[in-house]
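Appendix C: a fully annotated inverse folding record. The material below is reproduced so that readers can follow the format used throughout the book. The structure is listed first as tokens, followed by the designed sequence.
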């Protein structure tokens, strides 16, 4: 009889652990989705800020990728984000990196376009 009570207790513990596991997983899912939504809304706010600028200033403004080190003592953890930059005030090195990134993006876009055309022609 003691063994039956022990097995019932084990089953109830397994059931409780399963419920706790489901609860923890669902809370992590909701936090990660809200975290992603927070990043997305911040990005939209920055674009809205750029769009509110007068036309001439908007032409000279871009959103740059910004990696900031998270923490102290050079832990190597980086937080990605965006920053609003006036491209006319860039230094020589920053301007060179900006142009290289634009050219790389254009080449990537052209390559994708050519692949799609090739696929369409091959059909």
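Designed amino acids, in order:
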């Amino acid at each position: 009889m003691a063994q039956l009570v022990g097995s019932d207790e084990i089953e109830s513990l397994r059931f409780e652990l399963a419920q706790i596991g489901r609860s923890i997983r669902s809370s992590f899912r909701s936090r990660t989705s809200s975290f992603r939504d927070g990043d997305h809304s911040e990005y939209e706010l920055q674009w809205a800020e750029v769009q509110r600028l007068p036309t001439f200033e908007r032409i000279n403004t871009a959103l740059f990728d910004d990696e900031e080190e998270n923490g102290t003592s050079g832990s190597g953890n980086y937080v990605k984000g965006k920053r609003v930059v006036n491209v006319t005030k860039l230094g020589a090195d920053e301007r060179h990196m900006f142009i290289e990134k634009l050219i790389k993006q254009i080449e990537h876009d052209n390559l994708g376009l050519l692949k799609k055309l090739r696929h369409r022609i091959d059909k």
